[in-house]
Every structure is written in structure tokens, then in C-alpha cells.
Hints:
Blueprint: H1 10-16, H2 26-51, H3 55-62, H4 66-102, H5 109-127, H6 152-158, H7 160-163, H8 166-169, E1 180-181, E2 185-186, E3 191-198, E4 208-214, E5 225-229, H9 243-254, E6 258-262, H10 279-283, H11 287-309, E7 315-320, H12 322-333, E8 345-349, H13 355-361, H14 363-368, H15 370-376, H16 381-386, H17 388-391, E9 404-409, H18 417-427, E10 434-437, H19 441-450, H20 455-464
Parallel strand pairs: 5-6, 5-7, 7-8, 8-9, 9-10
Antiparallel strand pairs: 1-3, 2-3, 3-4, 4-6
Helix pairs in contact: 3-4, 4-5, 9-20, 11-12
Amino acid sequence: MTATALQTSTMHRILAGPLGWFLTTxxxxxxxxxxxxxxxxxxxxxxxxxVHPEPADFLDALDVSDAxxxxxxxxxxxxxxxxxxxxxxxxxxxxxxxxxxWDGGTNDPAALVALEQEHRxxxxxxxxxxxxxxxxxxxxxxxxxxxxxxxxxxxLTEARRWLDDPGSLYAAPPLPARVERSASIPGPxxxxxxxxxxxxxxxxxxxxxTARVYDPAEGACDAPAFVFGSxxxxxxxxxxxxxxxxxxxxxxxxxxxxxxxxxxxWHGRREVPGRYSGEPYLARAPxxxxxLFSAQTQETAQIVAWARAEGAPCVGIGGVSLGGxxxxxxxxxxxxxxxxxxxxxxxxGAGCSRVDRIVVLGDLSERLGMSAAVRGAxxxxxxxxxxxxxxxxxxxxxxxxxxxxxxxGRRDESTPYPFAKALLDAWGVPQENRIVHDxxxxxxxxxxxxxxxxxxxxxxxxxxxx
Length: 466
């Protein structure tokens, strides 16, 4: 039987059910954090395979030890051949979906649903083929990140113009974007569609921003809007289960809020050839960190302006982990933006101050080798601290403190709770606007997926401020 609407993912139902409780424990948090370097190795292998389909070139690009090269010659050839077949299978499905969404290929809702489901399934097989590269899972000579860490002296010289005026790095884009809108696909909470526009940032010049929009079933002409940024490494609606659309977008849409989930720079459809989703953000730290913050801040400003032009009486922004770090920049710097680009409220999930310190001290940075790469390139505590005005939000918010809602974990060692608390204290965010769990970074994210303590607060704040 052909489905007439997209459905909530089975994986989300499992995570939100009784069995998912285990994933909120400290034990699981430790296991998942320990597995991340191996998962990033798999992602890097896939990204390199896309641009190096020949076994010899692929093994050269991996830069593994000579012994590993000899061991991996045959499994690499098999994996590359299978990945090539999967990419060939994806190409026509992707073309049909693109034509249906953007070129009026069909106006049959059931056909659009079927195309979307097929595309996610086939795309996931090509984008997340972990089983194909399992032979690299524990290979110590394969780094989780292909580092290109900037020289500190050169980086600080190039950053001087922004250090003299940090607000200029986070200024609103000068012109409104020309936004294209795709055909709608029926979803479990209402119609879903894509919007796209040219990125206004010099750091992503020539790139196209794509965002998925979730409208309430009853219509969105006068509904509040919420723009939410995902975490590091997401590939969004290119795979079957994208947690953000089920735990935040569709939940809020069911409460009468239009939700926009944008793709971050260098993620998803915006992957850099030879790099996995989000890898450039890690590979050129610390410079790439403020570049992404700046680009996504300006792109979000354009989406806020689009939502207001569509009739939203109130627009909020937010995010978790990487998205939370970006949302605190928006909340801090939007004071000087034009009214139509300025958000009315902000949700900061797993954000924190002292970003210069988490580059070298954060648990995730240590595990992925970023701390060692940054130190090895000559960055010291003192030189990193000189970039703090670009990495941290301003000392006071650009929106009312009572319009900021935070979601934090006391055991979080990737975006440490003490640094987060210090930022909220400096901003004067009320205690009742701080949802704090006794959880680490991954477990906090799982609580957000499973729980319903954030969504009602976000909806209430948006409707109160309209």
C-alpha cells in the first residue's frame, strides 16, 4: 500500500520509548564518546572514496601505514566497487526527486512521498556505508580528521580586521536573499518542503544554503517560526532517520509553529569533495570554527527575514551542540541587525563560553586528535585566547535575557557546564530558563530526543512574544 504522508521514523519511536532510556545513562555516554573517533574514520574513508575511486589512489589518500596498505588492498578494492554501484543507483533517484521538487515533475502527493522515501534509503546506503569500510574501524594510523591546521602567526594577522571589530564578523547580510521554495511533501505534522538561497558569507561564497521547512497542518500564514541548527556531522534529510525533524520540527509543527532546519556550512548537500559532513570545521580549527559561526549566523539572519516576510509574527532561533554554539552567537550579535532579521527568542542547547579552551580541552577535541593538531601547529593558550572575541558571543545578549532558554548537561565535557553557566550568568538569563540535566554531551542530546521538556517551553515562549 502506497503511503500518502511521511511517517515518524521507527528509530525515533524506539529512542523515545522505554528502551531508549538506556541511551540517557552515563555508561552509554562514555561508550558513544569512545566510539566517535572510529565513526569519524568511517566517514572520512567514505568521503575520500568519493573522489578517489581507484584502490591505489584511495589508499594513498588515507595516508595509512605501509603495513596497513598491504593488508587493506583487497578489502579496499571490494569496498570501492560496491560504493561505486551504490552511487550509480543513487544518481537517477536523486535526479527524479530534484525534478519533482523543483521542476514540477509531479504534483501527486503519494508519488512525492514514495520518491522521498526511496531517495533517503538509497542515499543512506551511499553516504553511510560503514559496513563497507569496517576493515578501517580500528586502524590507528588512519586519523579521524584530515588536518590542515592554520599557522597561528598568519591566522592572527588575517584575523586582525575582525579582532578590531568582532561585530563586523557577525554583521547581518546587507541584502535580503532570493529564496526558492520546492513542492510540498505531506508529513506527519503538516506539509514539508525545501527552501534554498545563495549563502551571503564570504567564507562560503558560491555555495547554496538548503533548509527543510515543516509547516503546521492548519497553515503557517500567521504562525510563529523557529529556526533550529543541528549538531556536528549531520547529513540531514539525506538519510532515513534525522533526529531533529522528529524531536523538534514535527513536534513543534504539531503545536502550531513553522520550523526551519537549515544545513550548516560544509555539511549535508554542502559537503566539500573529499571531506565528510562537517570535517572542514574540525580540520582547520581554530580559524574554521569562527568562519562557520559567522557564515551560519548570516545565513540564519536570511531565514529569519524570510520567515517574517512569510507572515511570522514572532521568530525564534536555536540549536544543539554545534547549533547551540551558533545560536548563542546569533543571540549575542543580533542587537545591531535590522528588525526583520533579528530573532525574538533563542534556545541554546549545549552551548558554552571559552570556545578557545574547548578547542584544546574539550573531550571531543581530545578524542578526535584536534587538541594535539592545534598544539602541534604552534597554538598556545595565549594565541588561542587572542581569538576569543571571535569564538565567544558578546558579554551581554542582543535579545532580552528572559527570551533565552538554555538546555545543558552538568557532566558535559565537550561544551563544559561551568563555561555555559558563566555565559548565562553574564547574560542574566533567569534560573527558570535553564533546563539542566545530570548528563554528559551525548546523553544530553538523547534526553532532548526522548523528552518533552524543551518543546513546550519553546512553543510557549514563541507564542508569548508574538
